[in-house]
Design brief:
- 64% of the residues lie in helices and 0% in strands.
- The protein is mostly helical.
- The radius of gyration is 32 Å and the shape is flat.
């Protein structure tokens, strides 16, 4: 995902996610033609008139700077760094954008993040450690009493007490992971259709097509000589190269093909093929 929203993304986000309006409904509400609004949401380089900019800012009740992605703040425009109660290292990280600031903002503002931070603080401060120790002590006493009554390690109740001990570290890790699951799931789902999110490619079919093309006998010479075999293998590498780049081999000139073939002939796979061919000419 982008580190910051683009202007078209912000405009569409305000219209769809916040106002839940169609382009025509927005046009009716603002007086701006729907085709113009659509262009604003598609092309970042489209010039927006000052009048339309002010109209949209007033309609969405945001500043023009927010609308133009010059700031991420809609309400806390006068807050100073000291108001955030962060240390120097945290401020420097945010300033350097070592982490995606957009994703970080969405993480912090997620409705479940408060629960994660509460459970994290409980774990770090050890507020519940004594409760876990008491529970484990109770299990130990019950296990001891069973031993006094003659129960051995195969007894069902003995096994229950043995396996019911709470490991403090694992206990809190499980809680924190459960807190994070809905957050990361929501963030992932929210950005599935982003322009720079990995597309839903059928990699199995893609690889099959590459292999089918690579092994197709029509692509190569059939002459049963080491030279023909090596040339066929290099042609295969050339075909594989083109298919990986989603281009047709016919797009290459004779000179380009020759240059690539000379480069591929020096590759490790080509050298290994020549060695194998020399060892077994029947291949």
């Amino acid at each position: 995902m982008h580190t910051r929203l683009t202007i078209p993304e912000r405009l569409k986000d305000l219209r769809v996610a916040e106002k839940r309006m169609s382009l025509q409904e927005l046009s009716d509400a603002t007086g701006i033609p729907s085709s113009t609004l659509g262009n604003y949401e598609k092309d970042e380089n489209v010039d927006m008139s000052l009048g339309n900019l002010l109209t949209l800012a007033d309609f969405y009740q945001v500043s023009t700077d927010y609308l133009l992605c010059r700031t991420e703040l809609r309400e806390h425009t006068n807050k100073s760094v000291s108001d955030l109660h962060l240390n120097d290292d945290a401020v420097q990280i945010l300033t350097d954008e070592k982490y995606n600031p957009r994703l970080l903002s969405e993480l912090l503002s997620h409705e479940s993040f408060h629960k994660f931070m509460t459970d994290l603080e409980i774990y770090i401060d050890g507020f519940n450690d004594k409760g876990i120790q008491i529970a484990n002590a109770f299990l130990d006493v019950m296990r001891y009493k069973l031993n006094e009554l003659g129960a051995d390690s195969t007894d069902a109740f003995t096994k229950i007490f043995d396996t019911s001990h709470i490991e403090t570290e694992q206990y809190y890790i499980n809680i924190l992971l459960e807190d994070l699951k809905p957050i990361v799931s929501d963030l992932r789902n929210a950005h599935m259709k982003d322009s720079n999110t990995a597309s839903d490619i059928d990699y199995q079919s893609m690889i099959k097509n590459i292999i089918d093309g690579f092994t197709s006998p029509t692509q190569f010479a059939t002459e049963d000589t080491p030279e023909a075999s090596n040339d066929a293998y290099i042609n295969g590498l050339l075909l594989l190269f083109c298919k990986n780049l989603e281009m047709k081999i016919t797009q290459l000139s004779v000179e380009e093909k020759q240059t690539l073939k000379e480069i591929f002939s020096r590759s490790k796979p080509a050298k290994e093929h020549r060695k194998l061919r020399r060892r077994n000419p029947k291949l």
